[in-house]
Amino acid sequence: MTGFVQNLIDGLGNGSTYALMAVGVSLIFGVMHLVNFAHGELLTVAAYMTYFLQTRGTSWWIIVPLAITTAMVTSMGVEAVAFRRIRGANPFTLLLTSFALEILSHACWKLFVGSERKQFDKPGWAFNTFQVGPFLFEVWDVAAIVTTIVCLTATAWILRNTLFGLAIRASAEDFDAARLMGVKANRVISGAFALAGVLAGIFAALSLMRTGLAEPRMGANPLLKAVLAAIIGGLGSLQGAVVGGLALGVAEVFVRGYVGDWFGSQAAGLTDGVVFALIALLFVVRPQGLFNVATAERV
Amino acid sequence: MLAVEQLTTRYGSLTALHQATLRVDEGELITLVGPNGAGKTTLLTTITGLLRPAGGRVTFEGRDITGWDPARLVRAGLALVPERRRIFKDLTVAENLKLAGVTASAADRRERLARLPEVFPILRDRWSTAAGFLSGGEAQQLAVARALMSDPKLLLLDEPCLGLAPTMVDVVFDLLVDLRRQGRTILVVEQQARRALSIADRAYVLRTGRIVAEGPAAELARRADLFEAYVGGASAVGGGTAGGGAP
Amino acid sequence: MGNTRSSQFVSRTAATAAGNLALVALVLGAGLVYGIGGSSAREDLVTDALINLVIVIGLQVFIGNTGVLSFGHLAFGSIAAYTTALLAVPATRKEVLLPNAPWGIQGVEINVLVATLLGVAAAVVIGALLGLVMARTSGLAATMITLAFLFVTEAVAENWIDLTNGAGSISSVPRLESRTWILLAVALAVAAAAAFRHSAIGRFAQAGREDELAAGAMGIDLRVTRFAALVVSAGLVGLGGSMRSQSLGTVNPTQFSFELSVIVLAMLVVGGMRTISGAIVGTVLVTVGKDVFRWLGDGPGGLPTVEGMPDFFLAALLLAVLLTRPSGLLGDWDAGQLAARRLKASEIRSAGRTQYGSGSSESGSALVADGLGVTFGGFTAVDAVSLRVEPGEVRGLIGPNGAGKTTFVNLLTGMVPATRGSASLGGSPLAGAPHAIARQGVARTFQNLRVFANLSVRENVAVAALSAARHRADRPPVDVDELLAVSGLADLADRPAATLDYGNQRRLEIARAAALRPEFLLLDEPTSGMSDTESEAMIGHVRTVAGLVGAGVLVIDHDLGFITSICDRITVLDHGEVIAEGTPAEVRADPAVIAAYLGSQADEIPANEVQA
Q1: Is residue C99 part of a domain?
Q2: What would the pLDDT profile of A29-68 be if each residue is shown by its tens digit?
Q3: Of the partner residues A97, A110, A266, the one whose CB lies closest to the CB of residue C308
Q4: Strands of C552-556's sheet, edge to edge?
Q5: Cα–chain center distance at C122
Q6: According to the CATH classification, is domain A2-285 in 1.10.3470?
Q7: Would C307 be classed as within a structural domain?
Q8: Minimal C-alpha gap between C383 and chain B (Å)
């Protein structure tokens, strides 16, 4: 039982960070029908910036807000420069373009900074552990979960209670009708990218505190998890993204445990494979994801 | 107040609107009738900026508003109640209204949010219900109330009676008459020509993208061949302006 | 007729294959020139490009024909490569590399050619399994499943050390000494891709790529077409993958990674996914370009060394193409077209006359709806509509906006499941998926035009005729060219359907539906957006086409002049119910109908009471 709960805590810790990214992916899909494969690159930008500052002695108290701001600004910039151009294109083109941007970003970092890993110091306090009953917690775990809860609650609040949030929800449902109400198209989309950027920045800060690394392709894996989580939950559904992220995090931890038990040490790396197989199964059974976001096609 | 001159709109290879010309003066209730596929929605969609015209001009209060972004038009004083309403089903009634007040100041928005439920009691009952649960008639009232949130100078309605039961149709038409009495300028596109003509000042008949008849509403209503002109009977093939066309 | 069709198939395939093989020969020639006097690295580049060709052409068979994006195809390469290696690597090496290999693989050692074939077979089998799994999905979900498939395969390859040695590689894979085998593989790939492209299943797949709904309405079962495309492409990519490891002498998971999947996909997209030539050009461009940029990155002539140049090139090229020419550099152009012109191979025109008017009037199939209805949530769009259209009759279906006319047609054609009542054709129930209903003999056009945009005008109609030949073989076939001529489209036959003007596209859609040789044509607002003169012309057109194929007609439209002239009887819907039915004269005079359109006579016509 202890093991189960411990696993659950670990899973939720990871899962909540996936949720942060997944919500961003779903937000962007909601307003643009674009699956943004370049979203993970915000992490890379934040990472290199962190490396640059941290190795010059800047305190984490300054680095974190800067990382978040950088991610937000970059996100809005990419939208303005690249995605605005292809608004309304067919899904195939949209997907491939965001994809091309992702690999362009990888290539550029490799080109201009080099492909070897850059390391920087992690804040020591993050890894202090403490015991609560039979369970072991790292400060980071707690920080991650608490931060994520705060962020997602804040995001939900924004979406519920502010005009901006209303505009995003309305635009996701019926973009043109929102414009007819006086909502400015560019502002809404820009805003969605900004919000997604902030969430990505927070994820970056948390993740960087744990890993202390920067490398060109680091955004690929988190992005993939975010996209999968968003699709599992149903693209465009923000609750779905949260549920998808948590589910993915928890599934990973449990699958790793069971796979390890069943197949022995050799199979530790099979975890990803099993998780993917399960996800594929879900798509077969319920292609629209867990939470239905209906898009009817008029004949 | 509103002048549409020689407006032409295309969808790819299809010309949906041919050099349509009409005008709406302040305080008038104008109706545009015609069968489905005639281009009525295309006309409104072009005026309100969701479609760019291939030719022609739209002016509002003397300013050329052709091709303006819809959001900008709302700020200029135009509001559209779209065909089939297009209310935001996942948002509550209150949220639908609040969003539609985005162009107003916070004070004005609050004031209108307080006032509108008095005009539309239905809304008060359903204030926190998701708009997707409203009946057709309730949704129509919400759609009109939404448009009023921006306190428009010109109210445009696209087939407000579509899909409504006859009793609700009455409610909608009474509402339009009320709004006109309050001094609002209205352009309503309707398929149910007789009712629309009975409350309008002037009217236009649109068929296959062209204005085929215009004039005082009462006169048009009296035309014996209205049905023909309307749905394209053999006698109306190649029909021209008021007076009926020869085959 | 069958003769003509198969000879058309053979000649078209031959033309496409010939054209593309010529293209490959051109590339090879250039490569050989490049290789002269160069290091072995240059030779390797040419070999590399050739193997890429096999893989990318294989990928084209799937993505190009179905329009479904797949990230996972390299997994087939992996499966074939490992199978080949496990079967062909000498037993002595296997003892060392894979001491714990399961299933007695260690002892197996067979001829590498046979092993390659078995590897391809393995890829095909797995492809079939994946195809079954993916049958009902499309779009993004399908793409994600292929991605998952890739990762699962990669995970197995990396972690099942006993079988694959993971990242440690299986070496001593028998090496390909001569390039002949690779050239044969390329030729095979080109031939297979060309054959698939011109085969019935390939053409059906392409129709589905253009418009899923319209393809279904033409009787095409997209599950089958996608399955076939997947299986064929799995084999080809498997072949390429196996050859790759044979040319390198080892098998390793990194040869089939996600990164490489992206590169292979980019090769296809850059050149143009819809044609084989696009695959070839894209592959060569990217392979050569990457090498050039790698060379640049190595700091020639004193320039500084930079990493990541090849990746940069690839990403920038892909982005540039997507933003400026999303259909790829070649678009729909294929080298086979040149060859076709040279060989004058293709169009065997008017080989037979369509038999007039036979069909439904003889067989007596009436179209019957019995209390058919559907309720969405709380809203009843169609409320127990019953009607009967006699064989050969032309029936109009009219009513104000929102009356439920299109929904009714959607019910009849199976696009919307009925919640009450039923429909039948000639006594047999009309039920099942849209393609099944189309095969029973109900063909339709759409309110929002759905032609197959990138296919030629002729192909739009021909693919429907092909579907009829397959699934309605008991009916006499329709002559495509005659149908085109009658529709005024003969001169436009070779143009992409999307370039036609609106009226012609509408006529094309009707011709396409008629090519199915249906019992009934369901036309949804055929004159929508047309001027009066065009509408008048449509009257004759619909009559002629329907008469040509012997179909009855149910036509929705708002132009009463058109409806009156063309229809024998008219059914009027309002609020989802039938409110009148009769001859045109009866209906036009019916006060209920007039009221439905114009609104009820609430007041007598007054002077407007409200003065400002």
Answers
A1: yes
A2: 988 888 999 999 999 999 999 999 988 888 888 999 999 9
A3: A110
A4: C442-444, C520-524, C552-556, C394-398, C569-574, C577-582
A5: 26
A6: yes
A7: no
A8: 14
B112, part of any domain: no
pLDDT in tens, B93-150: 999 999 999 998 999 999 999 988 888 888 888 898 888 888 888 889 999 999 999 9
Indicate whether C271 belongs to any domain. Answer: no
Q: Do B191 and C401 touch (CB under 8 A)?
A: yes
- In tens, the pLDDT along B12-47 reads 777 889 999 999 999 999 999 887 777 888 999 999
Residue appearing with tokens 């003169």: C533
- In this complex, is the C-beta atom of B76 within 8 Å of any C-beta atom belonging to chain A? no
Those residues whose C-beta lies under 8 Å from the C-beta of residue C518, and which sit 6 or more positions away, are C438, C441, C442, C443, C472, C549, C551
pLDDT of C604? 33
| B74 interfacial to chain A (CB closer than 8 Å) | yes
- B34 occurs within a structural domain: yes
User: How many domains is chain C built from?
Assistant: 2
Please answer yes or no on whether C312 and A111 come within 8 Å at the CB atom. yes
From chain C, the residues in CB contact with B170 under 8 A are 602
Q: What 3-state class would DSSP assign to C602?
A: coil
Quick: pLDDT tens for C514-539: 999 999 999 998 988 777 788 888 99
How do residues C157-209 score in pLDDT, each as one tens digit? Answer: 888 887 888 887 888 788 877 888 899 999 999 999 999 999 999 999 999 99
Amino acid in position B129: T
Q: How many angstroms separate the CA of residue A90 from the nearest CA in chain C?
A: 10
Pair C245, C365 in one domain = no
Nearest to C402 among B13, B163, B177 (CB): B163
pLDDT digits (tens, 9 = 90+) for A243-270: 999 999 888 888 877 776 666 655 556 7
Query: What would the pLDDT profile of B219-237 be if each residue is shown by its tens digit?
Result: 888 876 666 666 554 433 3
Q: Residue C40 in 3-state DSSP?
A: helix
Q: Is C373 in the same domain as C238?
A: no
Summarize pLDDT for C354-376 with one digit per residue, the tens.
Answer: 544 444 444 578 999 999 999 88
C598: nearest CB among B12, B166, B192:
B192
Residues 157-196 of chain A with CB under 8 A from chain B are 163, 166-167, 169-170, 173-174, 176-185
Domains: count for chain B: 1
State how far the Cα of A190 lies from the Cα of A188, in Å rounded to an integer: 5
Residue B184 domain-assigned? yes
Angstroms from B29 CA to nearest CA on chain C: 10
Residue A40 has a pLDDT of: 94
B150 to A178: CB separation less than 8 angstroms, yes or no: no
User: Rounded to the nearest 5°, which phi and psi values hold at B168?
Assistant: -70, -35
Q: DSSP labels for B126-187?
A: TTTSBGGGS-HHHHHHHHHHHHHTT--SEEEEE-TTTT--HHHHHHHHHHHHHHHHTT-EEE
For A157, other C-beta atoms within 10 Å of its C-beta total 11
The torsion angles phi and psi of C10, rounded to 5 degrees, stand at: -60, -45
pLDDT in tens, B141-185: 999 999 999 999 999 999 898 877 777 888 888 889 999 988 899
Q: Residues A183, B73: contact at Cβ < 8 Å?
A: no
Which domain covers residue B82, as residue numbers?
A: 2-88+152-236
Do the chains contact at B231 and C558, CB–CB below 8 Å?
yes
| B194 part of a folded domain | yes
A64–chain C nearest CA distance, Å: 29
Torsion angle (degrees, nearest 10) of CA C279, C285, C290, C292: 160
Q: What is residue B234's predicted lDDT score, i.e. its pLDDT?
A: 40
Query: Which residues in chain B are closer than 8 Å to C528, comparing Cβ atoms?
Result: 37
- Which residue range(s) make up the domain with C174? 7-251
Q: What is the CATH number of the domain that holds B166?
A: 3.40.50.300
> Considering CB atoms only, which of B75, B82, B91 is closest to A180?
B82
Q: Is residue C604 part of a domain?
A: no
